[in-house]
Amino acid sequence: MIIRKISRDVLAREPYQAWNAFVNLLAMENYTDLDDVQRPAHLCFWYDTEVQNGGHLQYFENRGRELLNETLLALRILGAECPHKVLEAANRRFLIKPRSRIETAEEYVATALEGEFDTFDSAYDVCEPSIPDLLEGYLEKHKEYFVEIV
Predict the structure, then answer these.
(1) Which of 16, 40, 60, 86 has the fewest Cβ atoms within 10 Å of its own Cβ atom?
(2) In 7-144, where do the E strands start and end?
(3) Cα–Cα distances in Å, from 38 out to 17, 74, 82, 83, 99?
(4) Cβ atoms < 10 Å from Cβ of 52
(5) So what's the pLDDT on residue 71?
(6) In the chain, how many domains are there?
(7) CATH code at 105?
(8) What backbone torsions phi and psi does residue 30 show, to the nearest 5 degrees?
(9) What Rg value do the Cα atoms of the chain yield, rounded?
(10) Mean pLDDT in the chain?
(11) Torsion angle defined by CA atoms of residues 121, 127, 129 and 135, in that order, rounded to the nearest 10 degrees
(12) Considering the chain, what percentage of its residues have pLDDT values greater than 70?
């Protein structure tokens, strides 16, 4: 199991370092290298990160659909019912037509400006609780799978 280590002294002075280590693990490790407890957090983290940075279009462009079913399950595991419904609906929209890979930044901007996923992005923005809030609770519940205090 991949885990981040934090000194007890550092954690006592800077409690936020547990969160930083958690995010570092989710962001830097490959899905296939994580265990069954870590994977849902990884998938939810990346879904949230992509949507926050460029919407559902960016999520599908960067992440594809390879782990979509696993991501939907991960959202359920975290209790993210609203984002789960939004991703399901965005996926249905994504599948209604054949798509080619976007090759350039200009092509991405032009595609994004068409607004195909705007309603899904807006729906995601008002979901409560947010995925980061749910990830915080997931970390508290499963801290030993992410952070070792040494």
Answers:
(1) 16
(2) none
(3) 18, 10, 21, 19, 31
(4) 16
(5) 98
(6) 1
(7) 1.20.1420
(8) -80, 145
(9) 17
(10) 96
(11) -20
(12) 100
